[in-house]
Amino acid sequence: MKQFRDYIKVNEISKTKVYRYIRTIFLIGLGLFTGWLFFHSPGKGLPETQQQVDSHEHQGVSAQEEIWTCSMHPQIRMHEPGKCPICAMDLIPLMQGGVTQDPTAIQLSAEAIALAHVQTSVVSKNQSAREIRLYGTVQPDERLLQSQPAHIPGRIEELDVNFTGETVKKGQILAKIYSPELIKAQQDLLEAMKMKDIQPAILEAARERLRQWKLTPDQIAAIENSGEITTEFPVLAGTSGIVMARRINVGDYVNRGTTLFDIADLSKLWVLFDAYEQDLPFIRTGDKITYTLQAMPGKTYKATVKFVDPFVDPATRVAKIRVELPNHNGQLKPEMFAAGVIQAHTDQFKNNLVIPRSAVMWTGKRSVVYVRLADEEEPTFKLREITLGPRLGNSYVVVEGLAEGEEIVTEGTFSVDAAAQLEGKPSMMSVEPASAIEKVEIASTVVCDMCRETIEKGLVKEKGVKGVNVDLDTKVVSVSFDPAKTNSKKIRKAISQLGYGADDVLADKVVYENLPACCKIE
Question: I need a labelling partner for 285 at 20 to 30 A (CA). Which of 333, 384, 403, 482 fits?
Answer without folding.
Answer: 333
